[in-house]
Design a protein that fits this description.
Blueprint (H helix, E strand, L loop, with lengths): L2 H26 L4 H29 L4 H18 L3
Helix pairs in contact: 1-2, 1-3, 2-3
């Protein structure tokens, strides 16, 4: 596994763990438990895909090194999620 793939998976998981409290609260607020779990899983998958896409684009442009791109991606994902209204 190359370094970019490792960074993409790590950033995605870190973003999921950073946002899990808000995502869990939003899932529990739904009236149906199964629907709430599906919402939670869908949002976690969306965060993983978004982090992989952003990190891939940043690495493709080669402006910064991989570590800086990973930190920028993590901050961007968490900021987008927090601004969307957890």
């Amino acid at each position: 596994m190359n370094d970019l793939t490792k960074a993409q998976i790590t950033v995605g998981l870190l973003a999921c763990f950073a946002l899990i409290w808000g995502l869990g609260q939003q899932a529990l607020a739904s009236s149906d438990l199964v629907f709430g779990i599906l919402i939670l899983i869908g949002q976690l998958i969306a965060i993983m895909i978004l982090s992989m896409a952003i990190l891939g684009i940043l690495q493709w442009t080669k402006i910064f090194d991989l570590k800086t791109n990973a930190v920028l991606t993590l901050v961007t994902i968490v900021t987008i999620r927090l601004l969307s209204g957890v």
